[in-house]
Amino acid sequence: GAQRTAIARDLHDTLARANTQMVMRVQAARPLAAEEPRIAALLDEIVAMGHRSVSDLRTMLRLLRHDTPTPSLTQAMTNARATLADAGLHATITTDGDLTHLPPTITTTLIRALDEAVANMTKYAATDAPCTIIIGATPAQATLLATNPIADHHRPTDPALTSGLGLIGLNERAQALDGTLTHTTTNHYWTLTLTLPLT
């Protein structure tokens, strides 16, 4: 089980990311071929193939990961609280709804989002301000909402607040599960919202 998860993670980190970067580069080159319909058509084909191979890869990875034990959300929340407290932040992590019967892929993704939010908070949050993380579940969806004020010495345009491979990987996971991930920075507040459908 652990070995299969490691293989799946390696494949995802290397192949899925390389494919995604290739597609992005081809899309960036696409406007240069505006005058060349044959080149434009080939570039479009490469983009379509890239998207297809990423989704094929995700399907295979899901099968590979399928029988692995799920880490505990309760444990992850305990760890997150400790990390935030050690960083000197006033943080509250609360739950809303029944999180005990979620599918393993959903739980794992919520934990990844929790880790990502905590990492961002420890880096950028103002120490004297409250940080909140709410993990919720309804019969239709699971959600994670994290928000924290940004310390004054970080400008809201700080690229690290809005990018980072952690968020890219998390976004890919969310999309693979037909969910959405948004992160915004407004009025010195950073907000991360993850929504995963439970179908």
Distinctive features:
5 strands, 5-stranded mixed beta sheet, 199 residues, globular
What does this structure look like?
The chain is 54% helix and 20% strand. By secondary structure, the protein is of the alpha+beta class. It has a five-stranded mixed sheet. It is globular, with a radius of gyration of 19 Å. The chain starts with a helix and ends with a strand.
Span from first to last CA?
25 Å
**Helix and strand sequence:** HHHEHEEHHEE
User: How many alpha or pi helices?
Assistant: 6
* Beta-strand proportion: 15-25%
The low-confidence parts are 156-163
Q: What's the total number of strands?
A: 5
- Percent helix among the residues? 40-55%
- Structural class given helices, strands, pairing? alpha+beta
Write down the overall geometry. Answer: globular
**Average of the residue pLDDT scores:** 84
What does the main sheet amount to? Answer: 5 strands, mixed
Rg from Cα: 19 Å
Order of strands, main sheet, comes to 1-2-3-5-4
SSE map:
Layout: H1 2-29, H2 37-65, H3 73-86, E1 90-96, H4 104-124, E2 130-137, E3 141-149, H5 159-162, H6 165-176, E4 180-186, E5 189-197
